[in-house]
Amino acid sequence: METMYQFSRSIRRGKHYDLIVVGGGPSGCAAAIRAARAGKRVLLVEATGALGGMGTNGLVSNWYSLSDGEQILPRGFFWELLLKLADLGALPPGVDPRDLDWQRKLHTGTGFNPELLKMLLDDLCLSAGVEVRFSTRLVDVEIEGKRISGVVTHDVEGFVFRPCLAAIDATGDAVLAHMSGVPCREAGRDTEHIMPPTLCASLVDIDFTRFNRREYEKILQQAVADNEFTQPDRHVPGIFRTGANTAIQNAGHIFGMNALSAKSLSNGYILGRKFVGEYLNFANRRIPGCENSVLVSTATLMGIRESRCIQGVYELSYEDFVNRRQFDDQIGVYNKAVDIHVYDTSDEQWERYLGEYESQDKMGAGEYYGLPYRMLITNCIDNLWVVGRCASSDVKVNGSVRDQPACYVMGEAAGLAASIALDSDTSADSIDVSDLRKELRDGGSFIPES
Ligand SMILES: Cc1cc2nc3c(=O)[nH]c(=O)nc-3n(C[C@H](O)[C@H](O)[C@H](O)COP(=O)(O)OP(=O)(O)OC[C@H]3O[C@@H](n4cnc5c(N)ncnc54)[C@H](O)[C@@H]3O)c2cc1C
Predict the structure, then answer these.
(1) Whose CA is nearest to atom 20 of ligand 1?
(2) pLDDT for residue 360
C-alpha cells in the first residue's frame, strides 16, 4: 500500500511572466516563439537540455506528409523553420523545399539533422526574446478559481514559484493540464491498449546508393520468420535518412510500457537500448548499404506515442478525419494517415495495421482535415491552452495529429491565441477566433475556409 508524506516548504518566488510554456518540443517552441514575437514576456520551461522534443532528443528526426499534392499544408512557423534548415544544410542531399515539384509531391517529407535543429530553435527563441530554462521541470501548479496563477518548477537551484497570466501545456503528456484538474484520457487506464513506444537511435556511415527501404522491409520479414530477434515484431518502421550518410533508426516496440509510470518508463529505456543494438546488428549483417553503419547515439527521450490526451472543448475524432471535415474555427489542416502501431506481435495486429495505414485511411490529392481551435482549450481553466500530442483528440485520430508538423501548427496557433487573450483581457474560449485566423494567415499559415 502507498503511504503518503506531507511536503511543505517556503520556496523562492521568481519573476512574473505573461505566458509560461511548459515543454520545448515542436508545439512548445512554436507557441513560445510566436507569443514572444507578439510582444509577450514568455518563459519556456524544458526538462531536458535542448529544444525540439521528440524531433531532437527523441531522435525522431523525420517529417512526413507535408503536402496534399498541390501545396505544403503546415506553413507559417513550420515553413520558416524548414527553409532555415535547408539554408543551414540540415536536410538530406536532394531535398529542396523551394522546389515546386517537391512541394507538390503528395505526402512529401524529409529527414533533418537533429543537432542543427536544436541550434536553430535556440537562435529563434533568443531572437524572439523567449527566456528558456533548461533542465527545469514543472512540478506543481497554483490555481485561483478557474485560472492558473503560477507554476512551480524545479531546477539546479531548487524549487521556484513562477507567477504568470497564462500558460500553455506542451509536455506531450498533458502534465500541466492534468495537475490543473483538466479531465484526461490515459492510455492503459481508460483504453484497452497502450500504443508501444520505441527508443530511436542515430546512425552514421550508411551507403545510401545501395540502401533501399523496401528491401529492408523484405529482409526484416524473413529475419522475423527466422527467429532472429528477441520478439517476433513484424512492424519495424526501420531506417530514415537524415543526411548524406546519416540516418535515424526507429526499430523495436517496447510492448506494455506505460509512459505515465516512472518504473515502467525506466525499464523501457533499458529494453529500448537493448533493441537498438539488436536492430543495428541485424542491419550490419543483412542490409545492403548498412554493413559499416555505426551507432552514434541512442535517444535521451523515450519515443512515446501515447500517454495522456485532454478532454477539450472539442475532441477531434476519427470520423472528422474520415470525412475530411473542415471547421469554422480551424487554425490549420493536416493529412497524415492514421498510424496506430501494433499492440502486440500477433499476425492479426500486423494485418490490422497494414489495412488501416496503407489503404483505407490514406488521403488522396487535395484532401485534408481541419484542426479546430477548440481542441486546444478546456472548459475547466480559462487561461490554459494544451497543444501537440496531448491536445483533445480520440485515440485513432491522435495517430495522425500527433505528428510534428501538426504539433508546430497547433503550437503556433496557441501562442498567438494566448497573446490575443492577454491583449483583450479575456479567456481562451472567448477570444475572437477570426482575429486569430487572420493573424495566422498574415504569418503565412494555410487555413482554408470551412
Ligand atoms: C517513435 C516515434 C516515431 C515517430 N515518428 C514520427 C515521424 O516520423 N514524423 C513525425 O512528424 N512525427 C513522428 N512521431 C510523433 C512526434 O514526434 C511526436 O508526437 C511529437 O514530437 C509531439 O510533439 P509535442 O510538441 O506534443 O511534444 P514532444 O515532442 O513530446 O515534446 C515535449 C517536451 O516537453 C518536455 N516535458 C515533458 N514534461 C515536462 C515537464 N514536467 N517539465 C518540463 N518539460 C517537460 C519534454 O522534455 C519534451 O521536450 C513519432 C513519435 C514517436 C514516439
Answers:
(1) 404
(2) 58
pTM value?
Answer: 0.98
The pLDDT value recorded for residue 448 is 95
| 75 and 412 Cβ atoms separated by less than 8 Å | no
Cell numbers representing residue 232 in the block: 517476433
Q: What angle do CA 239, 240, 245 make, to 5 degrees?
A: 95
pLDDT, tens only, 299-343: 999 999 999 999 999 999 999 999 999 999 999 999 999 999 999
Q: Yes or no: say if 304 and 259 are a contact pair by the CB < 8 Å rule.
A: yes
In the reported structure, the alpha carbon of residue 323 is separated from the centroid of ligand 1 by a whole-number distance in angstroms of 27
User: Which ligand 1 atom minimizes the distance to the CA of 23?
Assistant: 34
Span 181-206, pLDDT tens digits: 999 999 999 999 999 999 999 999 99
Query: Ligand 1: which of 107, 125, 159, 171 to mutate, judged by most atoms within 8 Å of the beta carbon?
Result: 171
The answer to whether the CB of 401 falls within 8 A of the CB of 316 is yes
Q: Which atom of ligand 1 is nearest to the CA of 198?
A: 1
Q: Which three cell numbers stand for residue 19?
A: 505566458
The answer, yes or no, to whether any atom of ligand 1 lies below 6 A from the CB of 74, is no
